[in-house]
Automatic annotation (TrEMBL):
This is DNA-binding PadR family transcriptional regulator. Residues 26-88 form the Transcription regulator PadR N-terminal domain. Keywords: DNA-binding. Pfam families: PadR. It comes from Actinoplanes campanulatus. One of its GO terms (molecular function) is DNA binding. It comes from the Bacteria.
Amino acid sequence: MTMDATLSGHLQELRRGTVVVASLTVLREPGYGYSLLETLSAAGFEVEANTLYPLLRRLEAQGLLTSSWNTDEARPRKFYRTTEQGDAIAAALRDEWVRLDEAIGDLDHPAGTDSRSEK
């Protein structure tokens, strides 16, 4: 296995959970799947439709999203929105992300070598 393949696998693992946080955050405002794909892509999240749609269904089954069909336009679209529980989970995940980022920073710059350790 090449270093590129190894890195690619680890990056995929790292990004997997971030798509959940990003989706719950974006969907605080109602949105449909394709618009979410575009928003995530523009923000730098590489996710494919065959990954995102099952994720949306799973988050809905967990009670973190709610959905409704909009049939006002020529093409019906299923709109998703984060529930109150989804908002709480997203906030907790973002808080944990910040904590982990600080912890990695502390590992990268042990005590006494960087002002980050002076909390």
